[in-house]
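Why do we bother with holo predictions? Because pocket geometry can differ from the apo form. Keep that in mind while you read this record for arginine.
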Amino acid sequence: MPDSILNTPAEVKAALKAAPERAKITRVLMASPEHFSVETAINPWMKTKSGRLNKVSPKAAIAQWEALKGAYEKIGIGVEVIEAGGKLPDFCFCANQSFPFLDGHSRPAVILSRMKNESRAPEVPYYERWYSQRGWRIHELPKQVSSFEGMGDAIRHPGKRIIFGGIGPRSAENAWPEVAKISDMPVIPVRLTDARFYHLDTCLACLDASTALWIPEAFDDASRERVKAAFSNLIEVGAKDAANFACNAHCPDGKHVILQQGSAETVAELKKRNFRPIEVDTGEFIKSGGSVFCLKLELP
Ligand code: ARG
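The structure, written out:
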């Protein structure tokens, strides 16, 4: 499928024009944080300056998770919950184990992830069971794809049936032609260059069909041009807010933007453009390198 990977800005623009609209999301999946902890440092956020693993407060984490769930419900987004399967410390980051989508005939289908790190691989079967119990069509990637971390790196364009595909620490480049083929959606590949922004959802937050938050320095030159071709209104997030996970925001409805509290500059930029920021505290989860976007999965 030579047209499925959009390499030039012109290809991105043409594909966005031609692609059909995608349905708005009405619900998200969240995963119980019952066993959340920091046990293996698999990203640069999980250790203190002196090199020790961060310590989390289970009680505070559960309260933050409940508040995030409440924030979705308050704006009319349904929240489904998957129970914690085993004692898996990263299980609650449910953006990563799968990529759910509607196929060309609007039937629910899912591509299962192939986790980069051993420590997270056992999470996937629990998600597989969740989907199969509900009758979703389940796809696996061919063996030669070494890693693919679901919606950590596969981010749907807010308006059209097109995917942004992160290539970097967690998802391999050769995943994307396969994802495009299975999902029947073209992919805009973007290469991540900064270890702190190891999933695409840590440096790009799509808000509506023309607007996104991003950290330009987290991409290589060619990828930056592709993102610029896709959005006419890009909000650049500065170093301070970037380090506060501002780009791990989630805008489920083109209006409300749920994000980690304390990113004053980003909040002001959002308000200027008539978005409604909703600030939440995900501080315990940031100790593991994740915030709002990572803690939920968009169900198509
Ligand atoms: N500790 C988890 C990991 O490194 C955090 C995952 C955050 N998820 C995300 N979508 N960025 O895998």
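The pocket of arginine is lined by residues 42-43, 90, 93, 95-96, 120, 152, 199, 201-202, 288-290, 294 (CB under 6 Å).
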